[in-house]
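Marked as duplicate of an earlier ticket. Keeping the data here for the record.
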Amino acid sequence: MIHTFQKKDVWDRPYFRNAGAAINYFAMDDEGTWVLRHPKLTSISSEDFRFVSDYLTRDDFGIHYPENPEQNQEAICQCVAAWDVADKLGAADMQDYIAKKVQYIEWELADVLTFAIVIYRSGPSLLDDDPIRDWVSGYIAQHYFAYLKDETISTAFRKNIRKLRALWKDVLVKLLQIEERGDEMEEEQESDEDNLIDDDDL
């Protein structure tokens, strides 16, 4: 599928063209048309690239305000896929927009864990102050005991929290903040103390 953009929508995006960083992924073809030759495009499906296309042209993509459970689940899938594409392209502005978009969606434990895996397995953040990592780690910390108690997800949670050290570090920071504020955590019970993940588990 070929996507056609107006020059104003793509030309000044620093992840496509940045003289200071010696980046220029535009090349002119034989017909005199500028073509985007980003090296990561081959790893992005046409279906997922539509999120980037929509964002570049109208600063939005997909479902913004879900009206029912089906739309809500679709919006979650769109945000996860769009974030992965934005990460591949280095589109920090799109990731920043996704961080705002997730606030309008209802998330379940499994959805946030899946999103966290996608986010943290990609390596260092594109943003100096990353709102999406702040939100994800905060959600997991707030629902920490719920993750440990839910038999459908606790194994996957423990496995990935051990593997993704940056995620575990961020969650620990949020847990300490919750403790300092004296906030109550979701599904917190005295009997859960034996299930805590400690350094010996990691």
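See parent ticket for discussion. The longest strand covers residues 26-28.
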